[in-house]
Amino acid sequence: MAAAKPAYKRTHSAMNTKVVIPAFNLSGGKVVGAGEGGELPSDPLELVKSFGIVGEVVVYDDDAASGADSKDNAKMMDMLLDILPCRLAGGFTTNERVYDWLDKGASQVVVEYAAANLGFLDGVPKERITIAVTVTGIEGDNVLVAGGGAGHLKEAMEEIAYYGTRLLLRFADMPVDRSVVESAKALVDGVKGMMLNVEDVAAADDVAFLDAKGIETILNKPLRNGSLTIAAALGAVLVSDRADGLIPTVVVDEDLISLGLCYSNDQSVSEALKRCVGVYWSRTRGLWIKGLTSGATQELLRIDLDCDRDSMRFVVRQAGSG
């Protein structure tokens, strides 16, 4: 009898800049806001079955952010790091804690910006540090940010670029302002090797706007309250040159061996993410859940988009003869 395949370990994709990075908050080892409009499960291990399909996730440790030491959160984050790439956020204010979680496998650590208070990051590999800033308003051409000092993003950039290679932009009590994003992007583009992320946009159209500029969207609250879905975010950036609007979808197994070419649309992608199985759009039958009648099912492990956003790759675990 053939040996059972080991559990699939999700890894970073080389196919594209990420369109969307799902995020959620932890407290007491459970998902914060479970059961709200987005109907997220309380078990993080259950949640990442769908969130992890698009790759990396961001995990916010709410207990650490409030100064509490939660063993349940630490245990859960350890387990999550064994399953998929995670960026960790919340309570990272000491060199020791940053190094501890980077050593455990965190792909990135998110540190809150505080002017002249990032010195604890001395010696930490900057390529694994994201500096998060909160936009509080606009003053002329200046983007105002929380964190002390002059409070202007332009003046904060020198310190941010010294300690990190990613800037995470949040908006406090205001919608995402595209002019602010463009100003921040211009500052980031002036620093070699730096990337910009924006958190919690209001609509799928905002995701498309950011993606066109090479900016990754981190979705947290919209996924929790149900105002935006991962499928809608992906659908906003996908383009088709076909008359029927379908997206060519290459299906491969865990070893990236091709299983065939299918087609997808918004409805099939939504069902695939909801069910965590291979769901496609048949040009003759419509919505096609692979294996529903034959038993040759596909567990959906990963969705990747190519750089032109006009095709996808589904990584699946095939059951049966295919």
Tally of alpha and pi helices: 10
Basic shape? globular
Q: List the quaternary state of the chains.
A: single chain
Q: Give the biggest beta sheet.
A: 8 strands, parallel, barrel
Taking all residues together, what is the mean pLDDT? 91
Q: What is the helical fraction, as a range of percent?
A: 25-40%
Protein described:
With 322 residues, this protein is α/β, with parallel strands linked by helices. 27% of the residues lie in helices and 28% in strands. It contains 10 helices and 16 strands. It has helices at 44-51, 62-65, 71-81, 95-103, 153-163, 178-189, 204-212, 221-225, 230-237, 266-275; strands at 20-27, 30-31, 57-61, 86-89, 108-112, 129-139, 142-145, 166-171, 195-199, 216-219, 247-252, 258-264, 279-282, 286-289, 298-305, 312-318. An 8-stranded parallel beta barrel has the order 1-3-4-5-6-8-9-10, surrounded by 7 helices. A 4-stranded mixed sheet has the order 12-11-16-15, covered by helices on one side. The two termini are 20 Å apart.
Question: What is this structure's SSE topology?
Answer:
Elements: E1 20-27, E2 30-31, H1 44-51, E3 57-61, H2 62-65, H3 71-81, E4 86-89, H4 95-103, E5 108-112, E6 129-139, E7 142-145, H5 153-163, E8 166-171, H6 178-189, E9 195-199, H7 204-212, E10 216-219, H8 221-225, H9 230-237, E11 247-252, E12 258-264, H10 266-275, E13 279-282, E14 286-289, E15 298-305, E16 312-318
Parallel strand pairs: 1-3, 1-10, 3-4, 4-5, 5-6, 6-8, 8-9, 9-10, 11-16
Antiparallel strand pairs: 1-2, 6-7, 11-12, 13-14, 15-16
Helix pairs in contact: 7-9, 9-10
